[in-house]
Amino acid sequence: MTVLVPMTIEQxxxxxxxxxxQLGPNVGANGQGRTRKEALDDLxxxxxxxxxxxxxxxxxxxTLRAILRDCRLTADExxxxxx
Length: 83
Hints:
Strand content: 15-25%
Order of helices and strands: EEEHHH
Strand order of the largest sheet: 1-2-3
Radius of gyration: 13 Å
Structural class: alpha+beta
């Protein structure tokens, strides 16, 4: 299954790549890097840092549950999207 998350990536006037993922209403994550890949990798880290999970991948916080509900995603679908 493929899960699509609204994301933008563009290069600024200094040559840096900037990436942004909109995870839900008023909830997003940002990444940047010298290359497109670095920006996407940084974005992935930012998303993961904002998603505290147990080892068994159960979601621990209500905010993330609300985001996943709004996006109609299960926790497993969200985590698979980050791989």
